[in-house]
Amino acid sequence: MLKARDIHKKYGSLEVLKGVDIDINKGEIVSIVGSSGAGKSTLLHILGTLDKPDNGSVALEKVDYHQLSGKKLAAFRNTHIGFVFQFHHLLPEFTALENVCIPGWIAGKKKKDITDRAEHLLEILGIGTRKDNKPQALSGGEQQRVAVARALINNPKIVFADEPTGNLDSVNARELHQLFFDLRKQFDQTFLIVTHNEELAQMSDRVLHMKDGKMLL
Ligand SMILES: Nc1ncnc2c1ncn2[C@@H]1O[C@H](COP(=O)(O)OP(=O)(O)OP(=O)(O)O)[C@@H](O)[C@H]1O
């Protein structure tokens, strides 16, 4: 489903990615691990369209999306790619439900369909009763679940998660890990997760190890 070849990236004279290949199949939950500075987040940002590679290609179901630009790239990102970050980046003035709906509104889908799916996702994630609260009234774990629901609202082909549980205590982290697997079971959802969490890495279908800008075999 996701295929990247020979990804290179430099920041000034710093060579951060030195020819990375990656293949992810539909419905897989894959973790990327490696020491700090290995280039994991840079790779995830490139795969997720948030940054461009200097060289190499990235295709999602055969669409080489780094060839897209402007509005086409933004639309591709919004409809096909979900993101979960360490800090949830929820909008404080909107309720949990509204935060989940926003990417659906941007995609121009029917309001009722978006609301129904958002409510369903919040239910699955165990926070259905908290939907009318604004982020500040939610716990860290609840906020992160809202962020996961938001990532899933447009039924993305893949979700990229960068240290999704890095800011959570171990109980909340474990619960969120379990939810990724529940979502895979329910939607055949594909996840690529950068993590320092050993437990999450071990639960994954595959673990990819990065070192000094390269994927270890
Ligand atoms: N925008 C940028 N400009 C300059 N250097 C950058 C930029 N982004 C990342 N780097 C550098 O690239 C290297 C790889 O960073 P990256 O965040 O990808 O590593 P990482 O493996 O995700 O590390 P960590 O586990 O600490 O998050 C680091 O040396 C970092 O300082």
Automatic annotation (TrEMBL):
The keyword ATP-binding applies. Keywords: ATP-binding, Cell membrane, Membrane, Nucleotide-binding, Translocase, Transport. GO terms for cellular component: plasma membrane. InterPro entries: AAA+_ATPase, ABC_transporter-like_ATP-bd, ABC_transporter-like_CS, ABC_transpr_LolD-like, MacB-like_ATP-bd. GO terms for biological process: lipoprotein localization to outer membrane; protein localization to outer membrane. Residues 2-217 form the ABC transporter domain. PROSITE patterns: ABC_TRANSPORTER_1, ABC_TRANSPORTER_2. The keyword Transport applies. It comes from the Bacteria. GO terms for molecular function: ATP binding; ATP hydrolysis activity; transmembrane transporter activity. This is ABC transporter ATP-binding protein. It comes from Pinibacter aurantiacus.
